[in-house]
């Protein structure tokens, strides 16, 4: 008998590989057609995918609905922009964004981790709104205009240097960052710590009776989610050349939740599928009508009603069955070969 | 081992536990009986830290545990098997068992699982399956096995036979006896009085949040009086 959770995680990895494969094929096509628009849109989708991934860490694994996850995405973006305007260093910007987001995540976690359910959602919503309004009204942070003038970066990556102004190179860099984040988070949830988090979501009241202090794992989960949002947020000004307070507004957090629901809650990879789908839909539908949010709303309602487990939730059982069959065939072949040798 | 003195507990204005005192020694099973709603489960919840007592004392090997957090009480050596089993559906059978080890200070080695898996061959066969695929009886066994891996000194068990087939019930009670024989102090809340009396060493009867009758399970007169009071 196969480990169901192992199969589930392997299925996620297959979906990740498929997404990367599709992405790289599209990139090849875009390069062949000398397109930059869709390359940059794809990069934006991946960056927003990081925000959605952070929502899925909380919602899909911790059972905590955050309506303010854009707060950490925005903090990462603003810190990155502030650093880059002074010192155009990719690594310094990423390190500063990570450090400040870590601190913000700990503070936010200490506040939000005191409550559950709808109260958690409201507190996360409130924190993001408060910070967004402060940024919106702070002249030093560009106020409502945001921060503009982030220089085009040269990013040293050991033996090579890539330019943030090169759509292909920056797409591949963003893809690499997302791959590392996805792999790290997926690994985290296969460790004993991950199991405690999964147990917490399943039955938070029971876990203390097995000797666990539940506050710690929830806090770590919250901070990890904040870090993922902050690190991907740090890439945003490198792509766009500016940041604005809207990045922290409820629309950003709400979109991230929609991305996760569309892709499949609790799958990690679903967040990335949802982000790609929603970003491209908004762009395509938005090119025909300014009322594109109506279309997004209809799709969201459709997903809730007919695909509550999201795209991955629909496709995954079939893939899992195939993986189990593949394993059984591999095992049978190995046993047969061993028997013949004996 | 476990000592409770003059315990009082409230749900809001409702005075549920009204001065219960009892003792359970190592290697002993204490049956806690009574009709529905008299406070049996609330008593267990008070001991395990789920509900904070209003007053009175609860001691585990001389250490006061009344009112402290459930995880600290568990680490002090007291485990509870609640009425609704509460397995973790997102985890496999083995991962559910491992959770029983990981929460302890100075986490015990994974090899501690082996004797438990040998004792529960049905769980061993299903170790890699999701816990939700287990039958009701198997889930109850998993719930018991999960606390056994941590080798607690005191175990509270709430209605372990509820909704289970007689054959499974017999197996569950056999496991409870094994816990007692291993030196564990067991507090057993059970509605299935005849089966429970067969495994208990002593019992108490609770009415309106207070102990109104107590006796030894081997004492025929006490057993008869208990059954008469419960009209079973």
Automatic annotation (TrEMBL), chain A:
Q: Does the keyword Ribosomal protein apply?
A: no
Q: Where in the cell is it found?
A: Cell membrane
**CDD domains annotated for this entry?**
TM_PBP1_LivM_like
Say if the entry is tagged with keyword Nucleotidyltransferase: no
What keyword terms does UniProt attach to this protein? Cell membrane, Membrane, Transmembrane, Transmembrane helix
Give the domain of life. Answer: Bacteria
Name the InterPro entries on file. ABC_transp_permease, LivM-like
Q: What is its main location?
A: membrane
Transmembrane ranges, per UniProt, are 12-33, 45-78, 90-112, 118-135, 147-164, 170-198, 219-236, 256-281, 293-315
How does the record say this protein sits in the membrane? Multi-pass membrane protein
PANTHER family from the entry?
ABC TRANSPORTER ATP-BINDING PROTEIN, HIGH-AFFINITY BRANCHED-CHAIN AMINO ACID TRANSPORT SYSTEM PERMEASE
Q: What is this protein called?
A: Branched-chain amino acid ABC transporter permease
Q: Which organism is it from?
A: Pseudohoeflea coraliihabitans
Automatic annotation (TrEMBL), chain B:
Q: Recite the lineage of the species.
A: Bacteria, Pseudomonadati, Pseudomonadota, Alphaproteobacteria, Hyphomicrobiales
Entries under SMART domains matching the protein: AAA
User: CDD domains under this entry?
Assistant: ABC_TM1139_LivF_branched
Q: Which UniProt keywords apply?
A: Amino-acid transport, ATP-binding, Nucleotide-binding, Transport
Q: Which domain of life is it from?
A: Bacteria
Q: Which InterPro entries does this chain map to?
A: AAA+_ATPase, ABC_transporter-like_ATP-bd, ABC_transporter-like_CS, BCAA_Transport_ATP-bd_LivF
List the protein's name. ABC transporter ATP-binding protein
Q: Residue limits of the ABC transporter domain? A: 2-230
Output one GO MF annotation.
ATP binding
Family assignment from sequence similarity:
Belongs to the ABC transporter superfamily.
Q: Give the species.
A: Pseudohoeflea coraliihabitans
């Amino acid at each position: 008998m196969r480990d169901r959770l192992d199969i589930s995680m392997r299925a996620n990895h297959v979906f990740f590989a498929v997404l990367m494969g599709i992405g790289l094929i599209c990139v090849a096509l875009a390069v062949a057609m000398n397109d930059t628009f869709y390359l940059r849109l794809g990069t934006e989708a991946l960056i927003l995918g990081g925000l959605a991934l952070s929502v899925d860490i909380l919602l899909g694994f911790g059972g905590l609905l955050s309506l303010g996850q854009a707060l950490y995405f925005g903090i990462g973006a603003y810190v990155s922009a502030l650093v880059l305007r002074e010192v155009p260093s990719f690594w310094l910007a990423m390190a500063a964004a990570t450090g400040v987001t870590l601190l913000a995540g700990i503070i936010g976690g200490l506040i939000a981790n005191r409550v559950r359910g709808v109260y958690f959602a409201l507190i996360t919503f409130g924190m993001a709104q408060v910070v967004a309004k402060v940024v919106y009204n702070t002249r030093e942070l560009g106020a409502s205009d945001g921060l503009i003038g982030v220089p085009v970066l040269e990013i040293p990556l050991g033996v090579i240097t890539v330019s943030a102004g090169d759509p292909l190179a920056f797409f591949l860099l963003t893809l690499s960052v997302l791959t590392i984040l996805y792999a790290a988070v997926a690994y985290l949830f296969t460790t004993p710590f991950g199991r405690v988090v999964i147990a917490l979501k399943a039955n938070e009241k029971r876990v203390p009776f097995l000797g666990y202090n539940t506050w710690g794992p929830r806090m770590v989960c919250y901070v990890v989610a904040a870090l993922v949002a902050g690190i991907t947020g740090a890439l945003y000004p490198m792509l766009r050349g500016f940041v604005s307070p809207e990045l922290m507004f409820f629309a950003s957090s709400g979109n991230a939740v929609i991305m996760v629901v569309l892709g499949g809650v609790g799958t990690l990879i679903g967040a990335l599928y949802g982000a790609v789908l929603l970003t491209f839909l908004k762009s395509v539908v938005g090119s025909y009508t300014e009322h594109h949010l109506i279309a997004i709303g209809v799709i969201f309602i459709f997903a809730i009603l007919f695909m509550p487990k999201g795209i991955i939730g629909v496709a995954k059982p079939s893939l899992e069955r195939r993986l189990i069959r593949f394993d059984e065939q591999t095992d049978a072949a190995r046993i047969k070969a061993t028997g013949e040798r004996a | 081992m476990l000592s409770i003195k003059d315990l009082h507990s409230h749900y809001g204005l409702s005075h549920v536990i009204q001065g219960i005192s009892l003792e359970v020694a190592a290697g002993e099973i204490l049956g806690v009986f009574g009709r529905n709603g008299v406070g049996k489960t609330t008593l267990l919840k008070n001991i395990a830290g789920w509900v904070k007592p209003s007053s009175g004392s609860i001691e585990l090997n001389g250490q006061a545990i009344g009112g402290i957090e459930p995880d600290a009480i568990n680490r002090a050596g007291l485990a509870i098997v609640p009425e609704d089993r509460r397995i973790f559906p997102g985890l496999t059978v083995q991962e559910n068992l491992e959770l029983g080890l990981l929460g302890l200070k100075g986490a015990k080695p994974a090899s501690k699982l082996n004797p438990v898996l040998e004792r529960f061959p049905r769980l061993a066969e299903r170790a890699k399956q999701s816990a939700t695929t287990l039958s009701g009886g198997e889930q109850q066994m998993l719930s018991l096995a999960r606390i056994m891996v941590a080798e607690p000194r005191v175990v509270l068990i709430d209605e372990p036979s509820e909704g289970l087939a007689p054959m499974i019930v017999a197996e569950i009670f056999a496991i409870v006896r094994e816990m007692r024989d291993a030196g564990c102090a067991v507090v057993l809340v059970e509605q299935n009085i005849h089966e429970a009396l067969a495994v208990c060493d002593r019992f108490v009867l609770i009415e309106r949040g207070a102990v109104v009758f107590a006796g030894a399970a081997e004492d025929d007169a006490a057993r008869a009086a208990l059954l008469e009071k419960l009209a079973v």
